[in-house]
Amino acid sequence: xxxxxxxxxxxxxxxxxxxxxxxxxxxxxxxxxxxxxxxxxxxxxxxxxxxxxxxxxxxxxxxxxxxxxxxxxxxxxxxxxxxxxxxxxxxxxxxxxxxxxxxxxxxxxxxxxxxxxxxxxxxxxxxxxxxxxxxxxxxxxxxxxxxxxxxxxxxxxxxxxxxxxxxxxxxxxxxxxxxxxxxxxxxxxxxx
Length: 192
Hints:
Helix 2 (16-27) runs parallel beside helix 3 and helix 6 (154-165) runs antiparallel to helix 7. The protein has helices at 6-11, 16-27, 94-116, 133-141, 143-151, 154-165, 170-185; strands at 32-36, 39-44, 47-54, 59-63, 76-77, 87-91. The chain has a six-stranded antiparallel β-sheet with strand order 1-2-3-4-6-5, covered by helices on one side. It contains seven helices and six strands, in the order ααββββββααααα. The radius of gyration is 20 Å and the shape is elongated. It is an alpha+beta fold. The chain folds into two domains: 3-116, Aspartate Aminotransferase, domain 1 (Alpha-Beta Complex), CATH 3.90.1150.200; 126-185, no CATH class.
């Protein structure tokens, strides 16, 4: 147990019993407990393996390379269509966690083996993501913008492409593109 992580469990208003049991299950393994993104994150030799977090409707274990796990029990959920690597195990009560404790532990051990084996998730290239028409038009009109966008890291490109393509209204997509042009020209990512 890492005392720095205690604050997460102490401040929790919901899911306290569920969090405590998930923590106990994870700590049976060889993983190190750390605090990342304000949540308990469990690592193997510095690599993120699993994270405990909660939402209004459920608490969850997030497996960072969950897509590489054999989901024999059918417990892993892709949060959104754009999440490529991580998968969640969601819980709404402590009884489910108690009933699945050994299964949860086996998933964690498999995730550790995936890391030990050095397996990597094959991420989609930015060119495979949907390009908002409004952004394509901006790139076609401005060669400096196109060059700057192509110079960004693949992760930054993906973030912009997702950000631009999410809204249903063209006006919103257009506004997002317009508001991001300066940052792209400065070589910055969406959240830089």
